[in-house]
Amino acid sequence: MTGSALWDAGLALGSHLQKLLPTLGDPESSSSLAAIEIGAGCGAAGLALALRGGDDVEVVLTDNQPEVLALLEANIRRNRLQGCASVQALDWNDAPPLAIRRRRWDLIVCADIVYGLPSFGPLLQLLETLCQGPNARILIACGNRQRGSREDLKFFAELRERNVLEVMEVDEVEGACVGRWGGGVVEVMTLRRRPAAEEDEDAEFEDLMRELDLEEEQQEEEEEEGEKTAPAAEAPSRAGEGQQQQQQQQQQQHNSSVAEATAPNSAAEG
Asked: Secondary structure of the chain in the HEC alphabet?
């Protein structure tokens, strides 16, 4: 099980993140930096970020193996990082849990994640889901066992074909010479969501707002039409009241005339 092993790429990525920390996230936001590590294994990169950032960062370490999740929990306790790091189960083949999906992540980090994968589609879909907003960044570290491999090249070829994420820059970080594949250079690629993809999202949002505006205008027009027809509906009732009053006045005049006509006869009889 590779998830419980310490790999060179994870250590190199952790060291790189500690140097980059002051430049990460939204400079206008006062909130803690929200970071998530995908396929964390023993959590070297995410824990290094939490150690350096302290209360200014909030790191979620994810994996899908129960044994690895237990190891991550133990590593958090050993480093006394319970206040700024936590563990969450995440399977790339399933939709992310709501707690992960609804979060706006500033940073998504991963080391040697494409090694041994049968398909890259679920992983790319996950990265696209998590990387939202103009300041969100993905950092992918490729160690000696992965860098320049057929898997590595195929992964980034598919990433380009999907046309949602793009590589901003590539940094070379000295490896820590850990394990069989240790030593040499570790490539750390920084990705972001394509500005064109953000423009597409903005266009969809604007379309939605236009639809809502049209619905509001239609509702206002219906209310105005209702106000115009309401007096017309009351008119027959008012006309009926006026006709009734006129009939009452005519009856009173008739009664007065009858009384006047019969008054002399009554006096004569008296």
From this structure: CHHHCCCHHHHHHHHHHHHHHHHCCCCCCCCCEEEEECCCCCCHHHHHHHHHHHHHEEEEEEECCHHHHHHHHHHHHHCCCCCCEEEEECCCCCCCCHHHHCCCCCEEEEECCCCCCCCCHHHHHHHHHHCCCCCCEEEEEECCCCCCCHHHHHHHHHHHHHCCEEEEEEEEEECCCCCCCCCCEEEEEEEEECHHHHHHHHHHHHHHHHHHHHHHHHHHHHHHHHHHHHHHHHHHHHHHHHHHHHHHHHHHHHHHHHHHHHHHHHHHHC
pLDDT by residue (tens digit) across 89-124? 999 999 999 999 989 999 999 998 887 788 899 999
Q: Say which range, 29-43, 101-115, 209-223, has the weakest mean pLDDT.
A: 209-223
Instruction: Quote the CATH superfamily of domain 2-193.
Output: Vaccinia Virus protein VP39 (3.40.50.150)
pTM: 0.68
Task: Please provide the average confidence, as pLDDT, over all residues in the chain.
Answer: 80
Query: Which residue did the predictor score with more confidence, 55 or 205?
Result: 55
